[in-house]
Amino acid sequence: MPRMAFLLVLLFPSALLAEPVVPTDKELIGMGRAQLGERWYGIYVLGKKVGWQKDAWLEKDGLLCSDTEFTLEMGFMGKTTSIGSREVSCFTQAPPMSLVTYRQDKDEDGRKVTIVGKVDADQSLRFDVDAGGRKRSYTAPADSVVLLNMVPWAGVARMKPGDHVDSSSFDELTGKKRWEKITLKGTEEKALLGRPATLYRLRIQDETGVDLDAMVSGEGHVLEGTLGPSIRIVLEDRETARRKDVDMLDLYSSSFVPATGTIDYAMAIRIRRLKLRLQGQAPIQLAEVPRQKTVPGGANEVTVEVTACPPSVRSAAPDGDFLKCDADVPCDLEEIREQVARITKGKTGELARGRALTTWVNRNFRYTLGGGGGTGDMILKEKSGDCTEFSKALLTLLRAAGIRSRFVSGIVPADKDPLSFGYHAWVEAWIEGRGWVALDPTWGEFPVDAAHVVFDVDQGLGMAAHLGGLKMEILEVEYSKTFGEIQCD
User: Fold this and answer.
1) In a 3-state reduction of DSSP, which class is residue 202?
2) What domain range is 379 assigned to?
3) Are 451 and 268 in contact (CB under 8 A)?
4) Which three-class secondary structure state does DSSP give residue 399?
5) Residue 39 near residue 58, CB atoms below 8 Å
6) 352-388 as b/e, with b when 16 or more CB fall inside 10 Å?
7) Please, what is the end-to-end C-alpha distance for the chain in angstroms?
């Protein structure tokens, strides 16, 4: 279950003085053992059941093990898309209560990935990844995964409202460690199974943009979690959790943002500057990117101005994992590097090579509804998917070409009658002397028009939290005077 803090510091400067609560070893073991047994959850989006999750804990050979299984099933313009996963993690019961064994089996519409982890001879963690028959291994520090990551609220009984715990999550596919922050918002006294009980309201934030509100019992059992106004996970009995809704949620229509104002839909690719106002049912926080400026308005409102051609940047290349190759983005595979060399033959400079790779994906991939997930090499082999797969393929190629790149997502014009915007994904590449340049392999745009409004960078969940809860007002539109795609100096 997903579990962020810069914004809180801005809003509450006193948070700079607050020391985090550190759960004791006794609290961690006690909370871990309190999880023993099996719990089932229903997963809902916009009030419709989209799947279930089972959390089971057991003691095995002296180890404390978490066995989590979930399945999600949604529609996309009549096509069913499904994701299933089972993940088993076993920890020692002696400090530092680190991971001993791990296994995950994941299936995204038939694209299967298996990850097996264990303690290596030098006490580091070794992970073996099998993505559709392609095998890859890496090691990580022993403290990358510990029991604290699973029950970070172990010391909640001695926390006061405003206290927080610093924790982290670890992506076993990519080896990336991300920060998490769990803040106690308050307590409630309620009857639970006929007995009075203290329940704890937690705010769980992390590096990917998750801002989750959770209700947790004194034993540490999650009773309910909500992500914005649209996503909800609820503790239920097994039969209720696994029950399907008659009408399946359609992701395509539910991601639409109705818009007022005027846009010439046929000239969307020629929009050079766009100014709009977004209103939601929860606070709206968009990712910061050079081509986009945001100004907070009233409650749950923000004004956004997007330009297709932001000023060039002469600064040094940014730090970060923008060239990282891993099991999810295997840009160091020799066959992919050879493919990049063929596609970019005769092209000099990052701009020309980036354009060539964007055009190649656009012309050689088959668009399929609902996508299908998978790693970069799987997608490049099958050459099919939706905007997410198109973008991951381009990201893999760009990094193989030595061009810094990152995944971005947001909304673009989706329909003209009535006018609406819908979910979309694309890529940004760091071009020396230009800075971050947006490129859209699905539409074949390089650079993209200003109607691409960014919500998230690096596959965050900001957009997901607002599904079905946004509306837009178009304030100003400026079109390029040249025919065809945008031309930047």
Assistant:
1) strand
2) 252-479
3) yes
4) helix
5) no
6) ebbbbbbebbbeebeebbbbbbbbbbbbbebebbbbb
7) 46
pLDDT tens column, 15-60: 344 689 999 999 999 999 999 999 999 999 988 999 999 999 999 9
Q: Sign of the CA dihedral 157, 162, 166, 168?
A: positive
- One-letter amino acid for residue 108 of the chain: E
Helix, strand, coil percentages in the chain from 3-state DSSP, rounded to 5 = 20, 45, 35
Q: Give the global pTM.
A: 0.89
Instruction: Tell me the β-bridge partners of 258.
Output: 420
- Domain presence at residue 122: yes
Does 466 fall in a domain? yes
The answer to whether 256 and 420 have CB atoms below 8 angstroms apart is yes
Which of 201, 224, 242 terminates a domain? The answer is 242
Tokens 């009995």 belong to residue:
237
d(CA 6, CA 12): 10
C-alpha–C-alpha distance, residues 469 and 254, integer Å: 9
Task: Pull the structure tokens for residue 447.
Answer: 């650079």
**CA contacts within 13 A on the Cβ side of 474:** 22
- C-alpha span between 272 and 294 (Å, rounded): 17
